Amino acid sequence: MISRRTAITGAALMALALAVPALADDLNLPREWVELVAPPFVHPHEQATKQGPKIMEFRLVVEEKEMVIDDDGTKLRAMTFNGSIPAPMMVVHLGDYVEVTLVNPATNTMPHNIDFHAATGGLGGGDLTLINPGEQTVLRFKATRPGVYIYHCIPGGEMIPWHIASGMSGAMMVLPRDGLSDGDGKPLHYDRIYYIGEQDMYVPRDKDGKFKTYDSHADAFADTMEVMRRLIPTHVVFEGRAGALTGKNAMTAKVGETVLFVHSQADRGSNVHIIGGHGDYVWETGKFNNPPKKDLETWYVRGGSASAALYKFLEPGIYAYVNHNMIEAVELGATAHIKVDGAWDNDLMAQVRAPGPIEEPVAEGSSIPPAASTAVSEAAKSPVQAAKTSAPVTPEFFHIFQ
Asked: From the candidates 46, 71, 219, 297, which is the catalytic residue?
């Protein structure tokens, strides 16, 4: 009987044999080494480029480890690329060649590989990258379709969902060489970019309902698969941990800045919403050959894909970035914060009257009592001017997300 490893190795050798002429001349293109950074940040890159295609070099190191995924100290037997959940985001331009060195250190216990959704052929590279602990491999593919895509481990059989649910997914952005546009030829630019990787997790519980811990991945496997098969996650989080992008770790921006949010979900759909904001331009399916949708309140990220959304912040304050399944946002962890600094625009929003006792209307034909009318008038004179120089207190509503 031919093992799966033998079959994949045979397919890989055949593919490499066919590719020898292309590899021999090394494409005669300049090379650029990219130092990857942990999400939500993204490595420096040009949005539009006048340079020709390059060979963009990246390195991903598989790390099997234990990670704490909430403030209660719950531990996950995680599998990662470069130690983070999600894996780092890579940015290239249309026509570039992506060359990835995948390393599986001898300290790991399992085979790993990568399926790049941006790639064409060979299970997205999965057939050519399966390596055992103590091995490394190099894959090259051409970026032929602009957009944002996910990548993930795909080692075969029940290992596929286990490895993905344990954290082995990331994103790649293939930018048009002339940058983003609104679909009608108008160039679009972003001042900041954040990558949010949403992850559903499945942690087993003991007979008392408490989350279990395990000494090894092998020990965790059977119980974890049992929980996964029920399709009910115990955690749905951004950046690998509940609260990872809240409080002091919130994303930041300034009034007047345009931010590009790239959001991925390798397994399940997600309904992304910025509380207090919108999507000015949204590539809901993540593909830049398609014109962006405009002025969205919520956008759907399909399981196994990534989306991209541009928003220009117009007011300061704390914005909640959520999966608008509020059970998952509030109870399971799918919430982030965006802290925006700048001057408050009272024309966009104003608190006409502070909370106080209920008063019965007394003015005929009006629902506003005289006292309220006076309050409105006074607010128009002084607090409005004050609001132009400083943001108001964060609304009480946002406390549920802290």
From this structure: 297
